[in-house]
Amino acid sequence: MSSRSCGGAERPDEWILRGNHRDAWVFGASDPLSGHVAMLAEAKAFGALARAGHRPRRTLMYLSWDAEEPGLGGSTEWVETHAAEQLKRKAVAYINTDNIERGLLNIEGSHAFERLVTQAADDVLDPETGVSLAARLRGAWRVAASRPGASDTARARAKTAADRSQNLPLSPLGSGSDYASFICHLGISSLHFSFGGEGHSAGVYHSAYDTWEHYTRFDDPGLAYAGALAKLSGRVVLRLAQAELPPQRYSGFANLLATYLGEIKALTERKREEASVQRTLLKEDLYRLADDPRRPRGDPTPLSPVPWLNFAPLDNAIERLKVSALAFDAAVSAKGLDLSPATKAELFAMLAPLEQALTDDRGLPGRPWYRHLIYAPGRFTGYGSKTLPGVREAVEEERWSDAERQVLTTAEAIQAYASGVERARRLIVPDAFGDA
Q1: DSSP state of 64
Q2: 10 found inside a domain
Q3: Looking at beta carbons, which pairs linking 290-296 to residues 24 or more positions away fall under 8 Å?
Q4: 4 forms bridges with which residues in the sheet?
Q5: CATH code at 221?
Q6: 345 CB contacts (<8 Å, ≥6 apart)?
Q7: Residue 262 belongs to a domain with what CATH number?
Q8: Count of domains observed in the chain
Q9: Full domain range(s) for residue 262
Q10: pTM of this prediction?
Q11: CA–CA dist 214, 233 (Å, integer)
């Protein structure tokens, strides 16, 4: 791993981390050097600013990872080495990229940063259509939701996209790139940016054909989207580094947690219904009647009964966060700019480590290295994310005692997170809000 940093002029112990890996299975023009080139362009621009005497308020650290391809080795070793002494105390956020190609913007990460990312995406033009990255993405989502067979998620996303006053929703992070150690293990707020869907890199992925010639002819001619990525992530990095007030807003995250919990409740009820229907079919010997009498048959293995889980602790925690988040978001919008510089700095420092409240040092059941209770890669989904993973996977795998425990553990983490939001709000309006 190699790194370069620009020490902060006012808050040197608050770090904005920006990374991309450089190792590849073969030539790696697309994966990972397309994103790495964009990162180096950002670093070059910030270097020019530093030479001209413009130092950021906070420290910028640019990180070039090796050993990503064989299992995120470089970033994981670095994170584990510096976790307690530096990263948990100093890291504000980690911004990651990897491979990119022509197409739509994809944004994943900590949902408290939706407003920050949306504003940056509004300010960068898509190189082929001439509209902002955000405007093109909103349009694409609305068209996708109009197609036959569109999912409920796609339709909900399109509804959000149609309202320009609402932020772009971020997708949850799973694994597959170097952000995993930061968010899944340490609980450091993270973002991941990419472009895709219109290039032709899939057929050359991790092969000797992933060359400069192929990439510049078929994936990103003229490196236009590499430039767009540098402009987008560079803005996010600089705005985090220069911000007087914390950019986090929490209402969208609180509402999203309620959606995730609703999905788990629906899954539990669906499993209960399936077990009930099967019991009836077995009792009435209907499987035998439905089978061909001339073919050997056997009844299916009976499904286990589904107990009634107590989701009330999670309901209460999420409801508290909704109230706390709405109050904080309103307070910082109304009064944040009027705070003294010292109070603004204190507020920023108070919220920078708040994501860590959503972790559990004991880790998730069966995989203690993964500590984040809101985002994790699924045990059997590869890179794909599972939200509220301790509870969700316990329900999916019918580990009911684990599900009960994870409801309590996750609820306690969300309560702690809500307490942090409330403390921040009291810093803005000292006597207006008490602990729930």
Answers
A1: E
A2: yes
A3: none
A4: 62
A5: 3.40.630.10
A6: 10, 11, 244
A7: 1.20.930.40
A8: 2
A9: 251-428
A10: 0.94
A11: 25
